Amino acid sequence: MKFTEGKVKVLTNDVKNLTQALEGYINKAFYEGKDICASGGLVLKTTNKLKEKIEELKEVLPNVKRLSDEVKARAEEALKKAEETLSKGLEIKKRVKEFEAATNIYKKFPSEESKKRLESALNNLKYPEDGKLTLEDYVKSCNPYKKYLERRVKEKVG
After folding, report:
1. Is the peptide bond before 128 cis (omega within 30 degrees of 0)?
2. Cα(59)–Cα(53) distance, integer angstroms
3. Helix (H) or strand (E) holding 61
4. Can you say how many angstroms the Cα of residue 111 is from the centroid of all Cα atoms in its chain?
5. 67/57 Cα distance (integer angstroms)
6. Contact, 64 vs 76, CB < 8 A?
7. Among residues 58, 80, 119, 137, which one has the fewest Cβ atoms lying within 10 Å of its Cβ?
8. Can you give the pTM of this predicted structure?
9. Cis peptide before 62 (omega within 30 of 0)
10. How far apart, in Å, are the Cα atoms of 52 and each of 24, 82, 86, 105, 153?
11. CA 72 to CA 61: how far, in whole Å?
12. Within a 10 A sphere around the Cβ of 6, how many other Cβ atoms?
């Protein structure tokens, strides 16, 4: 498939916009403490979108025949910044998904091993440490995670 410099510019712009959006949602949810449910949910959604766009740009970039140094430099700079932000989003997503899995396993198989996994997952929700709010606040306040706590882990909530 043939890619042009214009395609690189469009993808670079998409990556920049999604990076800014993800940073904004992370800051709004965890550092400013504003509307944690909506912003937290958008962090999870935007992380996926950003990951896809980064992969697409990385795929297109080496396959463009005539690419000016300026456009290439901008694309690489956008990728670098996006990957840093993406790592924050992926960390948040990983911890939320582990909580979700641990509560599900604990509900279905309430063994000592699954209880330890659940405790570990609950401890991992104390992230970000330097924020006004944490993932723990997110799961205690927002659906569907709030329901998981109520239904799957009644004696653990406190």
Report:
1. yes
2. 10
3. none
4. 30
5. 13
6. no
7. 80
8. 0.89
9. no
10. 19, 11, 11, 30, 34
11. 8
12. 10
Encoded tokens for 87: 């790592």
Among the listed residues 94, 109, 100, 113, the one whose alpha carbon sits nearest the alpha carbon of residue 148:
100
User: Which residue type sits at 20?
Assistant: Q
Alpha helices in 61-157 (DSSP H): 69-108, 112-124, 135-141, 145-152
Matching residue, tokens 């911890």? 95
- Both structure tokens of 56: 């697409």
The H-or-E segment that residue 133 falls in is none
Report yes or no: 141 and 37 within 8 Å, Cβ to Cβ.
yes
